[in-house]
Design goal:
Strand order of the largest sheet: 4-9-8-5
CATH class of the largest domain: Mainly Beta
Helix content: 25-40%
Number of helices: 15
Strand content: 5-15%
Number of domains: 4
Structural class: alpha+beta
Order of helices and strands: HEEHHHHHHHHHEEEEEEEEHEEEEHHHH
CATH superfamily of the largest domain: Acid Proteases
Length: about 525
């Protein structure tokens, strides 16, 4: 029943956000507490209906008369105050659609009917949003705030989300970095609240940040430091011996002998001469090609003009569906790649040695060179990289990598860190992908995306690229070099350029042959001399 404490209601001031087309649920959330506090919600659903305007009164002379009902006066005063409060909280656009509603019940019914379908659509969208929202690149606090906001909007619409449901929604939106948190919560028998889950996620983020920025002891790889030499060498997965290499930090050709299990195999310049040369080159600019110091930079660099440009062009042909990442391998003794274009400097390998796998099979080495893993903090150099066309992965020897770059690597279950050995400053962060630890270059992110979306060329396109050979030769080249292609429907047909090329001798020269009898065989060199 409506309050009878007095005619003046303490409803407070109307909400600052007026009722408009898109905020009915929020507006309703604002006005209902004020109406409940004044105990006038019965006016909204007509539970406190209007009493009669007049009542029948019996007078002293036993006659009856109609007199104004005092209860109606109190009711109309309260009803009109609530009506005025609601009207003052509406925008002009909504006011134009409720003109003529004289009571609170009529106004409230009209508003609910007006926004009924819109509210249902809004609820559907909210449920879809809370189900499909992912953390992605958002911080954990921003992600939790967004999920809580969606839950609050559903609660305001009359469909509150329970704590177990909210926990399930939040866990479903977390990425793989939080698998340990998800597993820990799944192992707990008692259900937790959304607030407890937020506290655990925040603690996990703080610990990951602390582990990423804190100093730690040196990292010791399990790979054997094996160098190529004429003697025997031992390794766990790969073994290479013999040959000559080139290092960016040294001169082309010979170099100083490196410690190994073998007897060596390189003859270098005297140590005193090398030290004098380093002092003389210290003030020269660094060459952008070989990273050595020349008096005039790259203009006199030995490697400015490569003699095997054709091989470089052929290397670009293997850019379809190739995994271009470098993968850290603690069991490898040398850097290995199957892509020739990954070597910024290279030379042919003339030795007869092979890369030995764990199964004992051998793979031929065709080139040796250097590469760079570009990184905003510090470029990471890969020296003496072996080009092995048969390998399907680009492997980085952890031992050689840490030794050449003066860094350490810390491996964790879901990520890894590359730190400067002297300062412990983080140089590179990476994620564990399928149990592997890829060293992704900052300059390869765009090219990788390009390679992922490129379509396979058809066999007809390869026929044109290779100079219009026969279909048998095209198939042999594609299968020999493991090139991806889409079979063409017109493989057996002859293309127009092939017909035009074979018809370049037309018109035929005048023939002097004479036929003297029917069906006499006449020799004609249709295609011209071979």
């Amino acid at each position: 029943m409506a309050s009878s404490a007095g005619v003046a209601l303490n409803l407070g001031s109307p909400p600052s956000e007026k009722l408009a087309r898109g905020n009915f649920i929020l507006w309703k959330t604002h006005v209902l507490p004020a109406l409940r506090g004044a105990q006038v919600t019965g006016l909204l659903d007509n539970f406190d209906a209007a009493p009669p305007k007049t009542v029948e009164v019996t007078k002293a002379n036993k006659t009856t008369a109609q007199e104004p009902n005092p209860l109606y006066g109190h009711w109309i005063a309260e009803d009109q105050q609530v009506l005025s409060y609601l009207l003052n909280s509406m925008s002009p656009e909504i006011l134009a659609q409720v003109v003529g509603r004289d009571s609170t019940f009529e106004l409230w019914t009209t508003i609910n009917n007006l926004f009924a379908s819109q509210s249902q659509s809004r609820i559907t969208n909210l449920r879809i949003a809370i189900t499909n929202t992912k953390k992605g690149t958002m911080s954990s606090s921003a992600y939790m705030a967004k999920m809580k906001s969606l839950g609050d909007e559903l609660a305001a619409a009359g469909l509150p989300v329970s704590d177990p449901e909210m926990v399930d929604y939040i866990l479903a939106g977390l990425d793989r970095d939080y698998d340990s948190v998800v597993a820990a919560i799944g192992a707990v028998k008692n259900s937790i609240t959304a607030d407890d889950l937020f506290a655990q996620i925040s603690a996990f983020d703080q610990r990951m940040e602390m582990l990423g920025d804190s100093s730690s002891g040196g990292f010791h790889t399990s790979a054997n430091a094996v160098y190529r030499g004429h003697g025997s060498s031992r390794s766990r997965s790969y073994r290479g011996r013999g040959g000559r290499g080139r290092d960016r930090s040294g001169d082309r050709g010979d170099r100083q002998p490196s410690p190994s299990n073998g007897s060596g195999g390189f003859r270098g310049r005297p140590r005193q001469q090398q030290q004098q040369q380093v002092r003389e080159q210290h003030d020269f600019p660094e060459c952008q090609i070989c990273l050595k110091h020349h008096p005039v930079g790259a203009r006199i660099c030995w490697w400015r003009y490569e003699e095997n440009d054709q091989e470089e062009k052929e290397a670009h042909a293997v850019s379809y569906g190739v995994d271009t990442n470098w993968y850290a391998d603690s069991a490898a003794t040398n850097h290995i790649t199957g892509e020739l274009d990954k070597l910024t400097m290279r030379e042919k390998y003339n030795g007869g040695d092979q890369i030995r796998t764990a199964s004992g099979s051998g793979m031929n080495i065709t080139h040796i060179g250097s590469s760079i893993v570009k990184n905003p903090m510090k470029n990471l150099h890969l020296k003496d990289v072996l080009h092995v066309p048969e390998t399907s992965k680009n492997l980085v020897s952890v031992h050689r990598f840490t030794l050449d770059n003066n860094v350490l690597i810390e491996f964790y279950p879901y990520f890894f860190l590359v730190k400067d050995l002297a300062t412990r400053r983080i140089i590179l962060r990476g994620r564990c992908v399928g149990g592997l630890y890829p060293l992704i270059s900052s300059s390869s992110s765009w090219s990788d995306k390009q390679a992922n979306i490129v379509t396979k060329p058809s066999s007809s396109r390869w026929h044109s690229r290779l100079g219009h050979p026969s279909s048998v030769i095209v198939k042999y080249i594609l299968s020999k070099n493991k090139l991806s292609y889409e079979p063409s429907l017109s493989v057996e047909s002859v293309c127009d350029p092939c017909q035009q090329a074979k018809s370049h001798q037309l018109p035929y020269p005048i023939s002097i042959s004479v036929s003297t009898s029917p069906l006499q065989l006449i020799f004609s060199d249709v295609w011209g001399p071979a």
